[in-house]
Write a structure and sequence with these properties.
With about 110 residues, this protein is α/β, with parallel strands linked by helices. The chain contains 7 helices and 4 strands; from the N terminus they run H-E-H-H-E-H-H-E-H-E-H. Strands 1-2-3-4 form a 4-stranded parallel beta sheet. Strand 3, helix 6 and strand 4 form a beta-alpha-beta unit. Helix 6 crosses helix 7. The longest helix has 11 residues.
């Protein structure tokens, strides 16, 4: 598989919508299926919509226990409270639209 050849040079993550968008590919619709496939394919981790981690932060422990990195994206990440929740849960990275706003809000807490 081509992904395995790229892994030492380019980190490959698996992108899933985490049930937010209807897709014919079950790996992209289910976090459980995404984690299983990412491990099987030797990906570095998964990138998922943030809402499952915001509502159930304990999901991060499961993903991390599988030896995978975890990154999230989505509108929920523009709220600094949600970013802090994910950070405390062990999420490795977040993609945000309003970086300056989120960083400023987090710095003001400290």
């Amino acid at each position: 598989m081509m992904l395995r050849l790229k892994q030492p040079i380019i980190p490959v993550f698996f992108l899933t919508e985490a049930e937010k968008v209807e897709t014919p590919d079950p790996r992209r619709q289910s976090l459980h299926a995404a984690v299983t496939w990412a491990r099987k394919s030797h990906c570095w981790g998964i990138v998922t919509e943030s809402w499952p981690l915001i509502t159930a932060p304990e999901i991060a422990k499961h993903v991390k226990s599988q030896g995978l990195m975890l990154v999230t994206y989505g509108a929920g990440n523009n709220d600094s409270d949600n970013v802090v929740t994910q950070e405390l849960a062990g999420v490795d990275g977040v993609c945000v639209d309003h970086v300056a706003h989120v960083v400023k809000s987090i710095r003001e807490r400290n």
